[in-house]
Amino acid sequence: MIPNTKECISLMNTYGMLDNIKAHSLKVEQVARIIAQGLIKSGINISIEKVTAGALMHDIAKTMCLGSTKDHATMGMEICIENNFTEIAEIVGEHIQLKFYETDSEVNEKEIIYYADKRVNHNEIVTLEKRLEYLLDRYAKNEKILIQRIEANFRKCREVEKKIFSNLNFSPEDLEELAK
Questions:
Q1: How far apart are the first and last CA of the chain?
Q2: Which side of the chain, N or C, has fewer Cβ within a 10 Å radius?
């Protein structure tokens, strides 16, 4: 089952999602929807329902994980499964890091959410470079292994960006304007 927007907002409240995380999720949904609609226009089979729900639910467990070492993506996937939202569980579970990514396959909803999340810092659309800079500053703590992991993840994200935008009639730089 795929939750509708009202159900997603209700779950955000049920799980005590902080307002700033809600605002981030709403902006990620907006970016993801713009991308998905463009891909649909170009003939790619994308589910707007999955994109909307996946974007709104991607940080459903983040508030619960603050101040702990728990992985909010894994917990979010578990929350989706517990609520019978199995069609978006993997999207939520892989929004931080794609586990199964193929450069030659058609763009899918999981890649859209993964990418859209990397383009939104708090509730502002930013470049991948600005988001990388923020994440390194916030999470890497000058630890070499964390820096390497985050940078590797962003190399993959740049590949995903190329894959997505090779099918669109607008560029990554156009997202901010399209979201106005």
A1: 31
A2: C
Q: Please state, in angstroms and as integers, the Cα–Cα distance from residue 76 to each residue in 18, 79, 138, 156, 175, following that order.
A: 15, 5, 21, 22, 27
What is the domain range of residue 76? 5-178
CATH number where 92 lies: 1.10.3210
DSSP assignment string, 143-180: -HHHHHHHHHHHHHHHHHHHHHHTT-SS-GGGHHHHT-
Please check whether residue 97 is in contact with residue 39, taking contact to mean a CB–CB distance below 8 angstroms: no
Model pTM above 0.90: yes
d(CA 108, CA 151): 23
pLDDT tens track for 65-106? 998 989 999 999 999 999 999 999 999 999 999 998 888 899
21 within 8 A of 52, measured Cβ to Cβ: no
Task: Provide the domain count of the chain.
Answer: 1
Residues near 83 by Cβ (< 8 Å), separated by ≥ 6? 3, 11
